[in-house]
Amino acid sequence: MNGLRSCPKRLQGADGTTFSFSGRELMLWPAQLLQRVYLTSRLRLDDHQCIPNAYREAILKEADEELHEIRRTFDSTHHASLDQYVLDSGKFCDRPPLQRLVGGKTTPCDNRECVFDDVVVAATFPEGWISSGDGESHKAILKRRYIRRQRRYMRANASSDCIAYGVGIHDNFHFEASLVKQGCTVHAFDCTTRDVDNRMARAGVIFEPICIGESSDLPGQIYQDHLSSVTAASNADTHNAFVSSSQDPVFMPLNDVLDSHGHSHLDLLKMDIEGHEWRIFEHEIIGSGSQRLDSLPYEISFELHTEMANKAYVSEALVKGKNKREVNELFIKLWKLGYRVISKVLNSGDPACCEFVVARLGSVNNVSDTWRNIVRSSHDVCPARRVWFGPFTKTRSSG
C-alpha cells in the first residue's frame, strides 16, 4: 500500500490533459481502461508508483503491442492524428459504431422497438460539456460557453459569431429562445405557422415563415397531410396560428438561406419536422456535403421519424420505406461526412421516433480550430463497456 500513499492525485498526459482519481479507485480500473488512457494521452504509467510493478509491466506490454498495431494501420489512413484515428476506429469497442451500422443493415427488424438499435453514441465529453436533454424543449447539445472558450484558438479570419437555425417551430420555440440567451443569433423557419403577438421576436428569435428544402420535395398532398396532423395534435393551441392549407408554402434550400443571410457557417441546425428531415438530409446535408463541407452545420439536433411512427403525428408519405436499413444508411452517410452521435433519446411515447444530436468530430472535416479543440476533448464510447469511464474525470489543464 506504500504505492497508493505516494500516488499523485493527478496525472498529466503528453497532450496537456489531466486525469484526477484516488489511488484506491485506480486499483479497481480494468487493464484495458488503463491501456485506453495510455494510448490516447500517452500517460506514462511508468512515471509513478500508483500501480504495482508486475501489473504495470503487463499493462504496458499489452498497450505497446496494441499501439504498434494502431500505428501500423494508421499510416495507411487519411487521418490527421493518431488520437483522431483511435476516436474514429473505436478500437476499444466490441463493435465500433460504424461497423455496427454496416453489419446491422440486413438484421431483421419488424417492430418499432428495434429500428434504432444500431445507432449508438460514438463520442462523449467531459462532465458538464453537454446540456441536459429531454428530447423536447431541451436538447443535449454542446454548451455554447465551452465552444466560446475555445474560440481563442481559432484562425484570425474565422468568424466567432454563433449562428443557429431552428427548422420546424410549430408552437414551441423555447429551445431557440434558450440559444439566444447563450449569445447565438437564432433564425426560426416554419411555413406552417406564424409568430402571433410577436412572441418569438420578443424572445430575440428571428422568425421567417418559410420551410427549408426544395418545394418539389414536399408535394401538395404531403404538405396537406402534414399540416392536418400537426393541427390535430395541437387543437388546444391558442398562441400561434397555423397558415391556411390553401396557401402555397414557401421553400428555400439551406445553402440559399445561408447565402441570403451572409452566413458562412452554421453552429447548430435543429430540425423537428415530422418526417421531412429525411428530405433535408438527402438533398441539403448529404447531397451537398462534398461540395460545401465547410458550410455544413457543426451540430445537428433532430428527431428522426420512421415508417412505423404514429400516423396521427407523422405523414405516412414522408416516412414510407424509412425502416431500420434506411436508418443505418443515413447514419453511415453522416459518419462519412464526419458526424458522430453525441446524444440519443428514444421518444417515450413512440419508439419509432428518436431524438439525436450529431456533431462534426470526424477527421474528414476541415473544421475550425475551435472544433479541433472540441474534438481533442471528446472520447470514443463503447456502449457495452461504458462503466470503464466511471472512476475518473478528464479535464483540460489550465496551463
Can you walk me through this structure?
The structure is a single chain. This protein has 15 helices and 14 strands. It has 399 residues and is an alpha/beta fold. The chain folds into two domains: 79 residues, no CATH class; 285 residues, no CATH class. The radius of gyration is 23 Å and the shape is globular.
Summary tags:
three-stranded antiparallel sheet, 399 residues, disordered C terminus, alpha/beta
What is this entry, summarized?
Residues 206-340 form the Methyltransferase FkbM domain. By secondary structure, the protein is α/β, with parallel strands linked by helices.
Q: What is the straight-line distance between the termini?
A: 31 Å
The total of helices stands at 15
Order of helices and strands: HEEHHHHHEHEHEHEEHEHEHEHHEEHEE
Shape: globular
Domain Methyltransferase FkbM: 206-340
Protein name: Methyltransferase FkbM domain-containing protein
